[in-house]
Amino acid sequence: MTSTVSAYTDKIKEMSMLSLLCSCFYTQPHPNSLYQYGDLEVKGLNKRASGQSFELILKDPDQFGDKPQSQPLPSPPKKEVSLEELQKRLEAAEERRKSQEALVLKQLAEKREHEQEVLHKVREENDNFSKKTEEKLIQKMEVNKENREAHLNALKQRLREKAIHAAEVRRNKDLKADLSG
After folding, report:
1. What tens digit of pLDDT does each residue of 157-178 get?
2. In sequence order, which residues have a C-beta less than 8 Å from that of residue 40 and are 6 or more positions away?
3. What DSSP state is assigned to residue 181?
4. Residue 55 pLDDT
5. With b meaning 16 or more CB within 10 Å and e meaning fewer, what string describes 16-44?
6. Tens digit of pLDDT for each residue in 30-64?
7. What is the C-alpha to C-alpha distance for residues 101 and 90, in angstroms, rounded to an integer?
């Protein structure tokens, strides 16, 4: 029956609409038919200059005695399942569920561990950057302090030299005044 239905569907796809209608009205074999195969009849049409054409006629499935079964197919006999077998199946299902759960938990733990590693690395980089920046700042401050002290010492030295020079000039002036006077 299924082969007949599939043959019908295949042939209907290939047939023209007119041939399909004609085959529905004329289900008896045609006297000019060239070939018969099961429920299919091939009939030659008028020859043409471009080639030969054929008409395919599908026969009614009732003519072959392939009546559809009115009773449904019986279901296969059910196998009796013992309590032990049911228990084994339940245990196997529970084991599969536990292993799946363990796998998911393992993946989550690995993901958390990776996130912790990434956070640790970011913190470490931030700490290193902060330390380097602080060290540079301290070094700059020390250099600035040294430069300031050096500048102040240079100013003090110049003031001392000026004071010494002024004292020397006063002494020379006093000596000149004492000598002239």
Report:
1. 999 999 999 999 999 998 888 8
2. 7, 11, 56, 57, 58, 59
3. -
4. 74
5. eeebeeebeeeeeeeeeeeeeeebbbebe
6. 555 566 666 777 777 766 666 667 777 777 666 55
7. 16
Percentage of the chain beyond pLDDT 70 is 66
Cα-based distances in Å from 74 to 2, 77, 78, 81, 158 = 18, 9, 11, 20, 122
**What single-letter amino acid sits at 150?**
A
pLDDT in tens, 75-109: 777 778 788 999 999 999 999 999 999 999 999 99
Asked whether the CA dihedral 117, 118, 123, 129 is positive or negative, the reply is positive
- Count of CA atoms in the C-beta half-sphere (13 A) of 139: 6
Contacts of 60 (CB under 8 A, 6+ apart): 27, 39
CA angle centred on 39, ends 33 and 42, rounded to 5°: 25
**CA-wise closest residue to 161 among 153, 150, 173:** 153
Query: Does residue 29 have a pLDDT over 80?
Result: no
Task: Tell me which residue has tokens 């430069």.
Answer: 147
Q: How far apart are CA 137 and CA 134, in angstroms?
A: 5
**Would you say 19 and 7 are in contact if contact means Cβ atoms under 8 Å apart?**
no
